[in-house]
């Protein structure tokens, strides 16, 4: 099936409402094409994907901001083919006719995302290998234990900021701040950049009217960092890029730092928010996490299927005329990697309610040579951050009904606007040292490495607790049936949230599980 654009590359769009006109908010634009922006796309993206799939198949013509036409790739296999074939679908945005003829001007909301930059994300072949090699080599130098310590310390600090209140909004007070704090520490940026960077990063990703100014602020701050590291090397990511044998110039280094900061921030913020929502609202996950039958990393992987941090990525351009999913793609056409749509492709996932445990075939981090190189860092921040939060606040509960939560959507992502939660007020902890996360089990994961833990389907039988017997009651530091080491920590696999201060109700669940009831 071929569905050509109803007009030539957006040059003859027919009547177009003036800026600010309510008609711009409608879901259908010139030529009957559906808009990938506006109320419908933002409020019900999954519904929009299904309409497009029914109307056009696995590749659908859509309209971007300003009613610029592009192709949204909906099929899982079609997305894999596109991302794995740079000879047909390049990452170099200079192939796009909309940039060549000025349709996407420097002040267009999409300009910060698609304007060509001297970085690996916009390169193919040898240039991509050189620049990406510098990134991956520098990432290999990151101290994984240090990342875990940063996440623990900053998580503890953030919880200290609201723990006395007994109530918080987990999106602005935790999920949006933790990734930027950790990434600024890894990159070597002064902490005073954190809050402003959070605002600028989110504004740029949203493609708002101030996206260009937000992008300029980030570039300026990162450029100063690069210049400083040329003069004053340090043991941080910025210095490693500056000194790498790839010999990138200052602009290249600054732009790669910007790329890493933006991508890791947005993906990890959304991932943390979505995992927390799942844990707080879905009875299956809360019960399994509390009962020890599901690890936080497993909840993270399920979230990557259901609510991927990036819903879509505008970032492939046709090198020549070709076909994809039965559609005729012309030279210079833009294609969108439909991550969320591919994750719900009925060919690979006929039952959307099925448990995807152990299946990492999702496209949450794209695919091919441009697959996200820092995905394990994002997983680690989300895993350790959520674990640390639940350890400090094991009685955390959603303060509103799930249906009352608000979402904000755009071309790139769909994220929670708020996640109000409540808990019993408690005193702050010393945040000069990271909170103890317990001794890691070698059979599950080490330090910040994230992988599904081995499940204990048949726990070792233990003597049942006798009510009223103080010698058999669960101690404050270990569940019934666990042995205690010399330092007072529980031996064996004990989920991180089951620490001192857990509620009596939670301990009852733990005891029943440990005794095999």
Automatic annotation (TrEMBL):
Positions with biased composition (Low complexity): 467-492
Annotated coiled-coil segments of the chain: none
Organism: Streptomyces castrisilvae
Region (Disordered): 422-504
PANTHER family in alphabetical order: CYTOCHROME P450 YJIB-RELATED, P450, PUTATIVE (EUROFUNG)-RELATED
SUPFAM superfamilies per the UniProt record, alphabetical: Cytochrome P450
Family per record: Belongs to the cytochrome P450 family.
Residues passing through the membrane, by range: none
Protein name: Cytochrome P450
């Amino acid at each position: 099936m071929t569905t050509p654009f109803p007009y030539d590359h957006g040059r003859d769009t027919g009547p177009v409402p003036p800026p600010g006109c309510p008609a711009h908010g409608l879901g259908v634009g010139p030529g009957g094409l559906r808009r990938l922006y506006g109320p419908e796309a933002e409020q019900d993206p999954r519904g929009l994907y299904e309409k497009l799939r029914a109307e056009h198949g696995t590749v659908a013509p859509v309209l971007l901001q300003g009613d610029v036409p592009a192709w949204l790739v909906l099929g899982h296999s079609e997305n894999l083919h596109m991302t794995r074939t740079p000879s047909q679908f390049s990452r170099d945005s200079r192939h796009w006719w909309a940039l060549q003829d000025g349709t996407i001007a420097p002040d267009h909301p999409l300009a910060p995302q698609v304007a060509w930059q001297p970085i690996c994300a916009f390169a193919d072949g040898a240039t991509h290998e050189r620049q990406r090699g510098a990134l991956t080599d520098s990432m290999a130098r990151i101290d994984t234990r240090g990342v875990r310590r940063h996440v623990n310390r900053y998580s503890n600090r953030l919880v200290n900021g609201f723990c006395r209140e007994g109530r918080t909004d987990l999106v602005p007070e935790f999920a949006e701040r933790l990734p930027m704090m950790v990434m600024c520490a890894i990159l070597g940026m002064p902490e005073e950049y954190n809050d402003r960077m959070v605002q600028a990063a989110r504004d740029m990703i949203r493609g708002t009217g101030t996206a260009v100014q937000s992008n300029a602020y980030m570039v300026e701050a990162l450029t100063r960092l690069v210049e400083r590291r040329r003069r004053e090397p340090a043991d941080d990511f910025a210095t490693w890029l500056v000194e790498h044998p790839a010999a990138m110039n200052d602009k290249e280094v600054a732009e790669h730092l910007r790329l890493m900061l933006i991508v890791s921030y947005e993906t990890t913020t959304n991932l943390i928010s979505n995992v927390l929502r799942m844990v707080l609202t879905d009875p299956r996950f809360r019960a399994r996490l509390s009962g020890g039958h599901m690890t936080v990393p497993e909840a993270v992987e399920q979230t990557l299927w259901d609510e991927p941090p990036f819903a879509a990525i505008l970032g492939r351009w046709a090198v020549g005329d070709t076909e994809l999913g039965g559609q005729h793609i012309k030279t210079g056409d833009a294609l969108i990697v439909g991550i969320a749509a591919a994750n719900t492709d009925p060919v690979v996932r006929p039952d959307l309610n099925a448990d995807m445990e152990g299946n990492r075939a999702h496209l949450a981090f794209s695919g091919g040579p441009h697959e996200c190189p820092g995905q394990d860092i994002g997983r680690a921040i989300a895993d350790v951050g959520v674990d640390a939060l639940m350890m400090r606040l094991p009685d955390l509960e959603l303060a509103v009904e799930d249906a009352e939560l608000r979402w904000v959507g755009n071309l790139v992502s769909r994220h929670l606007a708020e996640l109000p939660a409540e808990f019993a007020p408690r005193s702050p902890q010393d945040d000069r040292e990271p909170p103890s996360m317990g001794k890691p089990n070698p059979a599950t994961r080490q330090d910040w490495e994230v992988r599904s833990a081995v499940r204990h389907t048949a726990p070792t039988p233990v003597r049942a607790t006798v009510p009223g017997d103080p010698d058999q009651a669960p101690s404050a530091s270990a569940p019934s049936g666990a042995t205690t080491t010399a330092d007072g920590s529980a031996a064996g696999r004990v989920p991180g949230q089951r620490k001192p201060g857990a509620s009596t109700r939670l301990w009852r669940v733990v005891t029943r599980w440990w005794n095999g009831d």
